[in-house]
Amino acid sequence: MRRPTVLIFDVNETLSDMSPLAQRFEDVGAPGHLAALWFAGLLRDGFALTVAGVGRPFADIGAEVLRAALHDERLTSSLDAAVEHIMSGFSQLDVHADVPEGIRALRRVGLRLVTLSNGSSAVAEGLLQRAGLQDHVERFLSVDAAGIWKPAPGSYAYALRECRVTPVDAMLVAVHPWDTDGAARAGLRSAWVNRGGADYPGYFRSPDLKVASLVDLAERLA
Questions:
Q1: Which domains does the chain have, with CATH numbers?
Q2: pLDDT, tens digit, for every residue of 50-101?
């Protein structure tokens, strides 16, 4: 495989450790396991709008799905305050343990690094700033500027235009098989980060690389 020149990173769950959001649910009186269900519902509705050709901000969809998820819970605060407390947690997340070493190793290899999130670019930039990694990333891109969420082809095409590269010279890096599949269908290379050891779904296009961490990815691309 020809080595890509640009790595395009997904942000939520790929770079960010979202497990602390469960505590945010518990803070307001809701069960922590609801965090995973809420995030899945957020993606579901975002993808439904994407299929319809509509792009809506991640935070807007997230807040409305969250209000519905918390409606029947016995909260310790008002619903508005609970939604605000949980949504604000995105701005305080940290990166996964392998990310700092992996990002630095990938830069040493000479690769250009950018992010492409279904969320806001500010959240992605804040995440890497807290980790001391913001100077290693060339651009913080959001599908807000593309007008359509990943995995629609237009979202990846937007990133390619911004980076001024052809699809074959770019690799999408994500923990989500739907994201690596979407990138592959748009002509990009793809790398699936499998920190948990799960099987890759057979109904998606297989990624070019399957790695256990960003450190593993750097070693494979060195």
A1: 6-17+93-221 (3.40.50.1000), 21-92 (1.10.150.240)
A2: 999 999 999 999 999 999 999 999 999 999 999 999 999 999 999 999 999 9
**CA-closest candidate to residue 113, choices 123, 124, 122:** 124
Q: Which amino acid is at 178?
A: W
Token digits of residue 43: 């993606």
Residue 140 DSSP SS3:
strand
The torsion defined by the Cα of 190, 3, 169 and 17, in degrees rounded to 10, comes to 40
pLDDT in tens, 190-202: 999 999 999 999 9
47 and 55 in contact (C-beta within 8 Å)?
no
State pTM to two decimals: 0.96
- Residue 119 and residue 51: Cα distance in Å, rounded? 17
Task: Count CB neighbours of 12 within 10 A.
Answer: 22
- For residue 120, the tally of other CB atoms under 10 A from its CB is 19
